[in-house]
Amino acid sequence: MQAASPLQSAPARPGLLYRLALGGFSLLLMYYGLRLLGLELSDLIDISLALPVLVSWGAVLLFRFHELRGIELHLRRKPARASLAASRQALRDSWRHVWQFGLLLLIVNGVGALAHIQDINRTGHFTASLLMGLIYLLVLKALVVMPLDIALARCEEAERAGLV
Amino acid sequence: MKLIKVLVYGLLMLLAFQFALYLYGLNWFDLLDLHAMVFVFAGLAFGLSNHPLSTVIRAFAQASGLMPYEDPPARSRQVISGLGRYALLSGTLGTLLGVMVSLMNLDDVAALGHGLAVSSMCLLYALGLKVLVFAPLEQNLLQRELSEGGAL
């Protein structure tokens, strides 16, 4: 088998227009799915869970600012204080932190659901809110963490191949 | 020989699945659900947006043996495993939304059943895609990667 030249081995990045078109299409499709289920976007807003998740995310951003700022710089192929590996690790750590904090909140919510077990509607509301928290975490992972991780892996591969 | 093995394995799985459906009093058309398809397809489309289309097509062609290995197998495996994870994520999202709809309509049995059905179908589609499509392709690429590593 013919060996690949360094140029051939450069991982390709998706174009901005392509990303926007496909990302927008998938989000629209998801919205259509929600409407089919009889849900509105306003049904998915639960500030009691969204706010703590966002605050914990913000705390991680503050504590590991340089590594997380490094993500942006590495993606733009600019010099950064933190190494690429450190930035990728920081991304994973921050996700783990938010996930664990989110789970803690969900447990508290579950306790709330069980505390009102005699009122079935209230328990249903609490449990729906608990699921909403899980949905927020999954959406955060799908829309932010995973795309960044994939992009950083691409940068790492390019760095290994000596293309940066 | 490998193809025959795959065919026999597939046939056995199909028969087992058909038997399970028969036991539950279901048929194949009961497994078609537009809501669940929309959720899983939306997740996959978002996963696709992380890679150029040409890279994805090459990864699938390489993994299924339709094309010689132009890209390193590790890169193709990363693409396929990423798509598999997106399928699982979107399936889980659909499952949670379905259960949520059920919990919001505890008084209405029809809506409750519909929500639970959607949630189960989302999980079924996501797991089906992962187990029947992405995992075997990933396995092919991993074997190729290991054999290349061994050759070096």
Structure summary:
By secondary structure, chain A is mainly α. Chain A is 74% helix and 0% strand. Chain B has 152 residues and is mostly helical.
Would you tell me the structural class of the helices and strands of chain A?
mainly alpha
- Tell the overall outline of chain B: flat
Model regions low in confidence, pLDDT < 50 over at least 5 residues of chain B: none
* Helicity of chain A, as a percent range: over 70%
What features would you describe in this structure?
The complex is a heterodimer of chains A (164) and B (152). Chain A is mostly helical. Chain A has helices spanning 16-36, 47-63, 65-75, 84-115, 120-160. Chain A is 74% helix and 0% strand. Chain A is flat and about 65 Å long. With 152 residues, chain B is mainly α. Helices cover 81% and strands 0% of the residues of chain B. Chain B has helices at residues 2-23, 34-48, 53-63, 73-104, 109-151. The two termini of chain B are 27 Å apart. The model of chain B has no long low-confidence stretch (mean pLDDT 87). The chains are: A mainly alpha (164), B mainly alpha (152). Chains A and B meet through helix 1 and helix 5 of A and helix 2, helix 3, helix 4 and helix 5 of B.
Write the layout of secondary structure elements.
The complex is a heterodimer of chains A (164) and B (152).
Chain A: H1 16-36, H2 47-63, H3 65-75, H4 84-115, H5 120-160
Chain B: H1 2-23, H2 34-48, H3 53-63, H4 73-104, H5 109-151
Helix pairs in contact in B: 2-4, 2-5, 3-4, 4-5
List its traits.
heterodimer, A: 164 residues, mainly alpha, 5 helices, 74% helix, disordered N terminus, B: mainly alpha, 81% helix, 0% strand, flat
